[in-house]
Design a protein that fits this description.
alpha+beta; 53% helix; four-stranded antiparallel beta sheet; Alpha-Beta Plaits; 18% strand; 2 domains; 185 residues; single chain
Length: 185
């Protein structure tokens, strides 16, 4: 393999990593209803994709380019998922099922979480269901707090497609700024 083929191999891998990572983030944006952001990502994704496909198809005498294409796709899928989890766009509704509901609700409210309490009953007895709508990137912190208060707390997390969280007034009375690119429209 000469230097030109090796350099092209590396460029194809990097381009596919970029293109597939963008595609992964774009698909999450589509599911969450962020059309504008998804469209911008789709534009750049298509530019990179068509360039790479053209290079591979015009050089079919170099089968190593097809290998680079596949390697870039696999790596891009993994990296795209890692980036999306790190960015953690969107909101989630967290249900906390616990017999220590009043105690946990008090701790969460002290931490400026907006909490709704519901009473429930299972075959094991009564419990409280706490509902908390949060930004997705705060879910891990909320779960840690809940586990510290009640290690037996059952946690159910649901993604929310549409919410007015970004435009809501916080508990201290300050109006939150709307993050237009993160909200579903």
């Amino acid at each position: 393999m000469n230097l030109t083929v090796f350099a092209t191999f590396c460029l194809i891998v990097l381009a596919r990593i970029t293109d597939v990572s963008l595609a992964t983030i774009r698909m999450v944006s589509v599911v969450q209803g962020r059309r504008g952001f998804a469209a911008v990502l789709g534009f750049f994704e298509a530019l990179v994709f068509i360039s790479v496909v053209a290079k591979v198809l015009l050089n079919m005498n170099q089968p190593v380019y097809a290998l680079a294409y596949g390697l870039g796709f696999a790596t891009g899928t993994y990296l795209g998922m890692a980036i999306e989890q790190r960015l953690a766009f969107g909101t989630q509704l967290v249900f906390l099922l616990t017999p220590k509901g009043p105690d946990l609700a008090e701790v969460l409210r002290a931490g400026d979480y907006r909490v709704a309490e519901l009473k429930g009953q299972t075959r094991d007895g009564y419990l409280t269901i706490l509902c908390v709508e949060i930004a997705r990137r705060q879910a891990t912190k909320l779960i840690r707090i809940a586990s510290a208060v009640d290690e037996q707390c059952v946690v159910i997390v649901n993604d929310i497609r549409r919410s007015d969280l970004a435009r809501r007034i916080d508990p201290k009375g300050n109006e939150r700024k709307s993050l237009w690119f993160l909200t579903a429209r």
